[in-house]
Specification:
Length: about 375
């Protein structure tokens, strides 16, 4: 059994995937080809944004936004404590300071109250200038972007949605990737929309930011093209081959994969209700279930379940074992009075089960049986 069965997906989509890859090879146009342009149009249309700029990976997408907004030394960017490292790493990459805030007690996502407390603590200290806020659609569930947007507006901060895990999810009729001044996603193979290598994209409605990011991702090119360098940028482009692979995959995601993920999550929810804390999805939210994460009673019980699964050859993962503030690279940074109660608690108790749109009922029964046996 696979944690994500990308092979099965390939078998289902094989005719389209093979044709797409061969078309790129025979056209011999590997960078910035027609497929990249078509993909950007389709991604923007699906998410409901004016612009989509594809790039080399999700981390670059986030960093390009930091660069476009001029984040640098002396700037504070607020980042959830419970996320993948890249969400905060990019702030440090451009010389800014990530300031972590806690996540909610009922979802793994941004807690707007903790965010506001962190902003106020930074202002009170007077050393850093609050500049931007990142929130994350962790495990595919939209964060409470409306509450975060209200805090950003109140304090005059830029808002970046990290939708690396959230592509295909929805909040109150708006797709993940449609929130904030800009949003980013990742096409790493294991994400809800993954390619056959690395890839990423930025979404924005802002024409100026669109132009700036299109320049930054091709060595700071100017109006005269790529040898007219007018700023320092980077080299971060999506290969045409990856774009070609993503086109049929986007169609499958939109046509049935998001729905299939709901069925799989629903079966787990029914089996584990009352036995573990199952994922909370608020009214008006659609998760794309990038992960199916449960909470055990405590670390001991969690580790017992994982040991049982390993014994049976069933893959499982802990997303994430360490809150961001406690990582070696960040643990000496100030925490502004925040205790990260929820992030610490999740790291101690959470575990994730095999989750993908092609998981069969029989496979799920095997997983469920092994998990329940461990109790
Ligand atoms: C995967 C991920 C990223 C980074 O994406 P890459 O394409 O791997 O660089 C950023 N943020 C979150 C929340 C992620 O899960």
């Amino acid at each position: 059994m696979q944690f994500r069965d990308l092979q099965k997906q390939y078998e289902v989509l094989k005719p389209e995937m093979d044709a797409a890859m061969i078309a790129v090879a025979s056209g011999a146009h590997f960078i910035s080809g027609e497929q990249v342009k078509t993909l950007e149009e389709r991604l923007a249309a699906y998410v409901g944004r004016k612009h989509c700029i594809t790039c080399g990976n999700g981390t670059d997408a986030l960093e390009l936004c930091m660069m476009a907004w001029g984040v640098g030394p002396g700037d504070a960017v607020f980042v959830p404590d419970f996320t993948f490292f890249a969400s905060g790493e990019v702030v440090s990459s451009v010389g800014g300071t990530p300031v972590f805030y806690d996540v909610c007690a009922d979802t793994f996502n941004a807690d707007a109250k903790s965010l506001e407390a962190a902003i106020e603590a930074v202002i009170a200290e007077g050393k850093l200038t609050p500049k931007a806020v990142v929130d994350v659609d962790l495990f595919g569930l939209p964060a409470d972007h409306e509450a975060v947007a209200a805090v950003c507006k109140k304090h005059g901060l830029l808002f970046l949605e990290d939708a690396a895990q959230g592509f295909g999810g929805m909040l109150h009729g708006k797709r993940n990737g449609a929130f904030g001044d800009a949003a980013c996603t990742s096409f790493f193979p294991a994400k809800p929309l993954g390619c056959y290598g690395d890839g990423g994209a930025v979404f924005t409605d802002d024409d100026g930011i669109n132009d700036l990011i299109r320049s930054l991702c091709v060595h700071g090119k100017g109006p005269g093209g790529k040898y007219d360098n007018i700023r320092v940028g980077m080299n971060s482009r999506l290969d045409n081959l990856q774009a070609a692979v993503l086109l049929p995959k986007l169609k499958a995601l939109a046509d049935y994969e998001v729905a299939a993920r709901q069925t799989v999550a629903g079966r787990y929810n029914a089996a584990f209700a009352g036995k573990f804390t199952t994922p909370f999805v608020a009214e008006g939210c659609l998760s794309v279930w990038a992960q199916y994460a449960l909470l055990a009673e405590d670390t001991k019980q969690r580790d017992r379940v994982i040991a049982r699964l390993t014994e049976k050859g069933i893959p499982s993962m802990v997303y994430y074992p360490t809150p961001q503030h406690a990582l070696p690279v960040f643990r000496d940074e100030p925490t502004y009075g925040e205790t990260f109660r929820n992030a610490n608690d999740y790291c101690a108790r959470t575990f994730s089960l095999p989750m993908h749109p092609y998981l069969t009922e029989a496979e799920q029964e095997t997983v469920i049986r092994a998990v329940l046996e461990a109790l």
